[in-house]
Amino acid sequence: MQKGAVPVEGARFLDYHDGSLLYMRKIDERESAMQSTDGPCVAHRADYHATLHEEATRLGCEIQLGCEVQDVNFDQASVILNDGSVIAGDVVVAADGLWSTLRDKILGQLSPPLPTGDLAYRMTLPADALSTIADQNVQELLRPNLSTVWLGPDRHCVLYPIRNRSQWNLVLIPDNLPDNVRTQAATMEEMKQCFEGWDPRLQKLMATGDAVMSWKLLHCEELKTWSKGRCVLIGDACHPSLPYQAQGAAMALEDGITLGTLLGSLNESQHPAVCGADRRAQCILELLLVFESVRKPRTSLNQKGSQSNQYWYQASTPEDMERRNKVFRSADGWGKCEWKGADFEYQRELLGYDARKHALETYEGWEKQARAVDCNL
Ligand SMILES: Cc1cc2nc3c(=O)[nH]c(=O)nc-3n(C[C@H](O)[C@H](O)[C@H](O)COP(=O)(O)OP(=O)(O)OC[C@H]3O[C@@H](n4cnc5c(N)ncnc54)[C@H](O)[C@@H]3O)c2cc1C
C-alpha cells in the first residue's frame, strides 16, 4: 500500500464517557507471531482505489467507466450493458458490491441486503484545523499514529489518520437512518446529539467538521451459491459484513487474489488434462466452485466476527457494558479472550492468512486430481 497510507502503531479502545483506556492493541511481536506480513496501515478509500487502479493499469487491464451492467448471459460468459452493448470473456466476475445486480440473477431471486440496526456517520477532518484546538489533551490524543475507538452504550466511534496524516477519518456509529435510504448528507447537529455526553475530546474533534455523510450498514446471510455458469460473485456482492473488524475490503482483495491465482494457474498450465480447448470451459466451471469452497469459510469467519463485535462495541445494558469493560481491561492479546479482538488464535487466523499461498496449494491439489481423472479415461 502506498499513496498516503499511514502505518499505525496499534489501536486503543477507550471508555466513551471519560476516555479512560479499556484496551491497547500494540503492533509488536504479536504481529510476527501471527505471521502477518506487514503491520496494518490505514488509508483513504480514494487513495486505496488509486493504488489498485495503478496496478491494474500496469498489468494491462483496460478500464471502461460509466458502463452499467444490466444483465448477464451465464453460458456465454457475457454481460449486457445499459447501452445494449455486449462484452464477452472467459469468466464474468461480478464485483458489484452490496447492492449487486448480478447476485439476484445468480441466485434466481431477489436478495436485498438486510438491515443490521446500525448506520455510520463519516467525516474527514483536516489536520490543520485539528492542530488549532487549544486543548493539550486533544493534541496528545492526535500525536501517535494510533487508531482510537470509543466504546459506548449502543454506539461506538473510530478515529484514525489518513493521507500522510494530513487528514483524520472520524466514523461514528449509531442507528437512525430511515428505511430504503443507503446514504444521505447528514446534519452536524443530529450527529452531535447522538454523541452528547461523550469524551469532551471527541466533542472538540467533531466541532471542527463542517460536513458529514451517513451510510446505512447492511449485510447478507451466507449465500447458497456464489456462481452460475461462468459468472462468479466476489467481495461485498457475496459476503458484505458490518465494518467492525475493518476487513471487508481486505476480504474482497483476498477474493481477487484467490480467483486470480486459480484461473491464472489454469491459464499457465501446459498439461493436456486441463489446457485443451475442449476442457477449458469445464475447468473454469470447476475452479469457480473450488474458489467458493476456499473463500466461504473465511469470509463467514469475518462476517461472524464483525457481528460479534457489534455486541462488544455497542453493549446496550449497564450489565453488558460492565462485562465488556472488564473483559477489555483484563485482556493482553496473547491468550484466549471472549472478545475475539484480543484472542490471539482468532487474530492469527484472521490476519496471518496468506491468500496466494493457499490458492496455489489448492490449485496444485485440483490439477493433480484432474490429471488422475484424465489418466483413467
Ligand atoms: C462505514 C464503512 C466503513 C468501512 N470500513 C472498512 C475498513 O476500515 N476496512 C475494510 O477492509 N473495509 C471497510 N468497509 C467495507 C468495504 O468498504 C467493503 O467491504 C468494500 O468496499 C467491498 O468492495 P467491493 O469491491 O466488493 O464493493 P464496492 O466497494 O461496493 O464496489 C462495487 C462497485 O461496483 C459498482 N457497481 C454496482 N453495480 C454495478 C453495475 N450494475 N454495473 C457496473 N458497476 C456496478 C459500484 O458503483 C462500485 O464501484 C467499510 C464499509 C463501510 C460502509
UniProtKB/TrEMBL annotation:
Q: Please name the GO terms that the record assigns under molecular function.
A: FAD binding; monooxygenase activity
User: One Pfam annotation, family name?
Assistant: FAD_binding_3
The residue ranges of the FAD-binding domain are 33-265
User: Is Flavoprotein set as a keyword in this record?
Assistant: yes
Q: Which residues form a coiled coil?
A: none
> Which keywords, in A-to-Z order, does the entry hold?
FAD, Flavoprotein, Monooxygenase, Oxidoreductase
Similarity annotation: Belongs to the paxM FAD-dependent monooxygenase family.
Q: What is this protein called?
A: FAD-binding domain-containing protein
Organism for this UniProt entry:
Cladophialophora psammophila CBS 110553
